[in-house]
Amino acid sequence: MSVLSILDMEDSSMTDTIQTPADTAAEEATEAVQAEEFLHLDPAAIIIGTNVRTDLRPDHKEFRKSIKERGVLEAVTVYRDEDGQYVLLRGQRRTVTAAEVGTPTGLIPARVVHQPSDADRIGDQMVENIHRAGMRESEIVAGVEQLALLGVSAAQIAKRTSIDRPTVNAALAVTKADQSRNRLDSGDLTLEEAAIFAEFSVISTRRSGDVPRVGTAA
């Protein structure tokens, strides 16, 4: 066999094994789809994972009636934990209500996905709730605070949750002023009012000398 023939064979072998970024992305997308499952689960057996929504509006009679008579029409989203149990990611209100009032089959549809990072979980839950039944402003503040504590910037919080940047900034301001936050939680102030109140509180505290200004010695 000639040297030229050997080189041609090596080139052909290398061409066959080269994988482009597009190929990699396509394979990852295929694997993600294949990893998902759709099951019907007992809602009472699903573990209610951490959720930024705290107000489930359990007194919504029409919603409870619909679940009892027709079941859960849109699949909830869960993941399997290390013990093989299903933990809820999205669909808390549907799952809790179904467990309380029952469904025609006793089961609810569930989409099983890989366990997400905390930042992805919080962001997805906020997007789902904000654009559906409207989260309370105190819940928005709590969600923004959780993302900030995970090191997510204000700009990224706005991008992840589709909340406008002024609202994100207002929520972050309220997280730094306990009195403002308490009044927001109790309904005395709107988020915008609480943010203004929080800013005045910070300015007042600095003037009193309790908190050093940026750039000055403590």
Q: Care to describe what's here?
A:
The protein is an alpha+beta fold and 218 residues long. It folds into 2 domains: 35-115, Conserved hypothetical protein from pyrococcus furiosus pfu- 392566-001, ParB domain; 135-218, no CATH class. The protein has 10 helices and 4 strands. The chain has helices spanning 3-17, 21-35, 61-70, 92-101, 118-130, 137-149, 154-161, 165-175, 178-186, 191-208, and strands spanning 37-41, 76-80, 86-90, 108-113. The protein has a 4-stranded mixed beta sheet, with helices on both faces. A hairpin with a 5-residue loop joins β2 and β3. α6 packs across α8 and α9 (178-186) runs antiparallel to α10.
| Helical content (DSSP H or I, runs of 4+) | 55-70%
Q: What's the SSE pattern? A: HHEHEEHEHHHHHH
Q: Nearest-angstrom radius of gyration?
A: 25 Å
Please count the beta strands (DSSP E, at least 2 residues each).
4
Sheet with the most strands, sense and barrel status: 4 strands, mixed
SSE class: alpha+beta
Spatial strand order of the main sheet:
1-4-2-3
How does the overall form come out from the CA principal axes?
A: elongated
End-to-end Cα distance, whole Å, is: 81 Å
Classify the oligomer.
Answer: single chain
Mean pLDDT: 78
- The low-pLDDT segments are 28-34, 211-218
- The fraction of residues assigned to DSSP E strands is 5-15%
Tally of discrete structural domains: 2
Count the DSSP helices: 10
Organism: Nocardioides daeguensis
Protein name: ParB-like N-terminal domain-containing protein
InterPro entries: Chromosome_partition/occlusion, ParB/Sulfiredoxin_sf, ParB_N
